[in-house]
Specification:
The protein has about 300 residues and is of the alpha/beta class. It is built from 12 helices and 8 strands.
Length: about 300
C-alpha cells in the first residue's frame, strides 16, 4: 500500500489501539488476541495500531512482538492499514521496526526513545535513522522525551518520505500551530493525548482529522458515535457525553499513575472481553475502582 493511500485511510476515521492479551500469569495469550484483533478491526475504526502504548509495547519481548504484529496483520482485512509500535534506543527501535516490516505491517508508530534526555538535534538523528531503516510508513509520536522542534520536524518530513503522520501526546497547541505552518498538509495529524476525546474539538480546529480512542477497546460503538458528533459539529451531544462519561472516566484514570492502560484492560474485562492483567510496573484497578468503571460503562453499552 503506497504512502499516499495509507495517509488517506489513516485520515478518515477513528483509530484502534488494541490492548495486548495476557493470561493469568502474564504470558502472551495468542488465541484471545486473535479474536480481539478481528473484533477491533471490524467495529468501525479506519486503522489499527498493534503493540502501541495501550498495547504495552514497553513490556514485550521481541519474540512476543513478532507474534503480535503477525497476528494483527493476518487477522485484519487485507485492505485495512496495520501499524506496529516501535520504541527504545535507536538500534533497538530499528530492530523492532524491521521486525514489523518483515511481518507485513503497513507502518510503524515511532514511540519515544528510552530514558536518555537529548537535545533536539540528537532526537532528530534518532528519528531519521529509524525512518531510513525501513520502507514502510512512519507515524511520529511526540510525547515524553521525544519532542523535536518544528524546524526539525519540517526537515525530517523532507528527508524521510515515509513519514506520513504525526501523533501529538503533549498538548502544546502553540507548537502544533508552528508545525502545521511549516509542514502543512504533507502529513496527517493525529490527536494522541490520553482520553483524546476531551481534546478532539480543539484539535479538529487545528486541522487534526482523527485521534486514538482508548474506550474503543471496550465500547467501540460509543467511541465511533462520539467521533461522529465531533466531526459533524454536534457540540450539544459531544458536551453531554464529555460531562456524563469522559470527565468521571478521566478522574478515575488520573487517580493513580499508569492507569491509562490499566483502566482500559478493566473496561475490556467488564464487557466480557478480558485481556488479562497488565504487566509490572503497571498494576490493575482494585474492586472498588472496577465497580465505579462498570457503572460508567453499562450506561453506554447499547445507547448514547
Amino acid at each position: 500500500m503506497e504512502y499516499k493511500e495509507i495517509r488517506k485511510r489513516l485520515s478518515n476515521g477513528l483509530l484502534s489501539f488494541p490492548i495486548t492479551d495476557f493470561d493469568k500469569v502474564g504470558d502472551f495469550s495468542k488465541g484471545t488476541y486473535e479474536k480481539r484483533i478481528e473484533w477491533q478491526s471490524s467495529a468501525g475504526a479506519c486503522s489499527l495500531f498493534a503493540a502501541g502504548g495501550t498495547g504495552e509495547f514497553f513490556s514485550l519481548t521481541l519474540m512476543e512482538y513478532s507474534d503480535i504484529v503477525k497476528i494483527a496483520v493476518d487477522n485484519c482485512p487485507k485492505d485495512f492499514p496495520v501499524f506496529a509500535g516501535v520504541g527504545g534506543g535507536t538500534r533497538v527501535a530499528i530492530e523492532y521496526a524491521k521486525e514489523a516490516e518483515r511481518n507485513g505491517a503497513n507502518g510503524i508508530l515511532l514511540l519515544p526513545h528510552y530514558l536518555m534526555d537529548a537535545d533536539s538535534e540528537g532526537i532528530a538523528s534518532h528519528i531519521r535513522e529509524v525512518c531510513k531503516s525501513v520502507k514502510i510508513s512512519v507515524v511520529l509520536y511526540i510525547r515524553g522525551l521525544c519532542q523535536p522542534s518544528a524546524v526539525d520536524i519540517e526537515k525530517l518530513v523532507e528527508e524521510c518520505p515515509n513519514i506520513i503522520a504525526l501523533k501529538d501526546g503533549v498538548g502544546d497547541l502553540e507548537k502544533m500551530v508552528l508545525i502545521r505552518s511549516r509542514v502543512g498538509d504533507r502529513i496527517t495529524y493525529i490527536g494522541g493525548l490520553p482520553t483524546a476525546e476531551l481534546y478532539a474539538t480543539a484539535y479538529k480546529n487545528l486541522g487534526f482529522t482523527t485521534y486514538s480512542s482508548a474506550v474503543y477497546n471496550f465500547i467501540p460503538d460509543f467511541a465511533i458515535r462520539f467521533y461522529s458528533f465531533v466531526f459533524s459539529g454536534n457540540i450539544m451531544e459531544e458536551t453531554r457525553l464529555i460531562d456524563d462519561f469522559f470527565v468521571p472516566y478521566l478522574q478515575l484514570r488520573n487517580s493513580k499513575k499508569g492507569y491509562a492502560v490499566s483502566i482500559v484492560k478493566a473496561g475490556a474485562s467488564i464487557v466480557g472481553r478480558s485481556a488479562g492483567p497488565v504487566r509490572p510496573p503497571l498494576f490493575d484497578l482494585d474492586d472498588s475502582e472496577k465497580g465505579k468503571l462498570r457503572t460508567m460503562i453499562e450506561k453506554y453499552l447499547t445507547t448514547v
